[in-house]
Amino acid sequence: ENDDSLWVSLSFLRVFRALDALNQIESTGVLDMVSDFRRALMFLVLRTMCMIVVLAGIVFTLEVLGELPTITEEAISTGMGDISFMSILYFSISTISTVGYGDFSPSTLPSRMFVCLEIVVGVIFFSVETTNIMELKNLLNTGKGSYRLRAHRNHVLVIGGGVSNAGEVLTALLKELYGDQEHFDPGWPDAVMLCPSEADRSLKSHLKTMHAEKRRHVWYFVGSPMVTTDLDRVCLQEAKMVYVIADVSARDKRQEDGFNLLRALSVRKHSPHV
After folding, report:
1. Going by DSSP bridges, is the β-strand pair 155-159/241-244 parallel, antiparallel, or unpaired?
2. Nearest to 117 by CA among 50, 62, 55, 60
């Protein structure tokens, strides 16, 4: 006796567990040494794979179930073949989206309806994700991004007129924080710099000469210590210490001291416990 019973499984939805697993791994601090841009790419690849698996599973399920008895599709014979409104709609969306045609195409009405939605969702998904990735890269390159707290790692904030260039005070501070040894020290904090202007060539060159392990702990952001939103971007509330360093090459020493005093007062007002 033949068993014609049909079982429909939604086990393909388990793919979302991969996203939960990656979030749990990130919470342990294992990904702290991965840059924000690479981390975003990892999540993009994983989200893309999840979307593909889920969409493929739904189309497969609809094809296995076959036509719905309550929905009928009347085909008309033309020079293009036997066509219906749904088949032409599927053809039009495939053509506009430049998806193209393969050896396999949906044969049932429900699956064709879903594939039309799948194509639109796919185009929107990749457009949005690509835009987000490019915006993140631009923010990181221009210092307009935000500092992300790392598990099991402290950070110190460095502000003042001497931040934008590799002056004696800043280079001495970095040497004090990370020492002369090249091997990784788990006790190293992140040095988060905040300055109204972008880093000049001398600072960029100095950072390139630093050991890779040390360089991963140095972050530079464009912003003002006088602005609350900028202080929030660098997580001032969670900082273990704040260094206010002066620009020793400034022409007007008194003005430089006055600006640094205002920066220190702003930090003190925003976060008195630091």
Report:
1. parallel
2. 55
Q: What is the pLDDT of residue 243?
A: 94
Structure token pair of residue 183: 């091997």
Q: How confident is the model over 65-79, as a mean pLDDT?
A: 74
> Cα(273)–Cα(60) distance, rounded to whole angstroms?
58
* Structure tokens that stand for 30 in this block: 């294992």
Residue that is written with structure tokens 């931040």 in the block: 163
Q: What does the angle CA 179 – CA 154 – CA 178 come to, to the nearest 5 degrees?
A: 5
Neighbours of 268 (CB within 10 A): 12
**Dist CA 151 CA 122 (whole Å):** 34
pLDDT in tens, 178-188: 887 667 677 88
91 Cβ contact list (under 8 Å, min separation 6): none
DSSP code of 218? Answer: E
- Nearest Cα to Cα of residue 219 among 151, 156, 136, 172: 156
Q: Are 128 and 103 in contact (CB under 8 A)?
A: no
Structure tokens at 127: 């457009």
The pTM of the full predicted model, rounded to 2 decimals, is: 0.61
Q: Which amino acid is at 210?
A: M
Sequence-distant (6+) residues with CB within 8 A of 260 are 160, 161, 244, 245, 246
DSSP 28: T
Q: 């001497």: which residue's tokens?
A: 162
Instruction: Give the three-class secondary structure for 75.
Output: coil
